[in-house]
Amino acid sequence: MKIALDPTPFHHSHSLLELPAVVADLGYEWLQLTPHVDMIPFFNHPKADDGLVAKFRKACSDAGVGIASVLPVLRWSGPDEDAREAAVRYWKRAIQITVDLGVSTMNTEFSGRPEKPEESERAFYRSMEELVPIIEREGLDVLIDPHPDDFVEDGLAAIRTIRGINSPNIGMVIVACHQFHMGGDLPAIMATAGDMIRLVHVADTMDHHRSHGLRYITNPPGNAVRVHQHLEIGDGDVDWDQFFGGLGELGFYDKDTVMVSSVFAENENAHDVSRRQLDTMNKYVEKFSTR
Question: Are strands 105-109 and 141-145 parallel, antiparallel or unpaired?
């Protein structure tokens, strides 16, 4: 298993090519390449040419940091056909960047619109028909997170949707701080998904269902919003013994898998938080490892 840092909190204080050194300084051996304006930005065409890709790969090598995964977020399930077709083109470039970086794992989100689930599902599978042959040809592992406000948010529904692709190269991401939008029964989701889970994100959140639905308040009531957080372990309501214990039961720690620290709530303390996250994750892994 690779333990990686999502360096998003440092995107505004450091350049793209400085990020590997920052990650190494914080004690991590791996990073997750998340959407960055100079590489693969949210929803738009990748902005890196071959020269920048080569420079980033060298910066990682010089820092002694590997790239555990590449995370594009593109509208490949968008019910608007023009946006979906564009996203497929962007995905093809993102795949090439990933291959050129020497990385074999990509993770992403279902995207689409929850108020248009049928249209989004049609768009999703249409995109898969074009992209899965490329993914399989390149030997990539593409893992999908049922993100809040995607057309698939429930964890069990996500498993069914991924099974429908019928490719061993497509799997699932479990994001700890999304679980209260995923149906809430994390043990059942983990047990059903099994080896489909090959990447997890570690961050805490408060359960928006608690306090009879008033843990968070939006005005006017009834707003179609999804609220969650990416907090440091222990600052929210996630049951971490359940989370890490469930991964241990799956043998997650003994496989070619990825665990990512993804705390976005405390940029002003990001250095200290990142170091504490690494220490805490290692302690939980040691506690629940099957070795």
Answer: parallel
How crowded is the C-beta side of 161, counted as CA atoms within 13 Å? 28
b/e code 245-261 from CB counts within 10 Å (16+ = b): bbbbebebbeeebbbbb
Judge contact between 54 and 26, C-beta under 8 A.
no
Of 7, 1, 62, nearest in space to 277 by CA: 7
Q: Which helix (H) or strand (E) holds 142?
A: strand 141-145
Give how far Cα 69 sits from Cα of 2, 101, 215, 230, 246, Å.
Answer: 10, 10, 34, 19, 22
| Per-residue pLDDT tens digits for 134-149 | 999 999 999 999 998 8
pTM greater than 0.90: yes
Cα 135 to the chain's mean position, in Å? 18
Of 107, 287, 102, 290, residue with least CA distance to 196: 107
- Per-residue model confidence as pLDDT tens digits over 46-94: 999 999 999 999 999 999 999 999 999 999 999 999 999 999 999 999 9
CA 5 to chain centre: 11
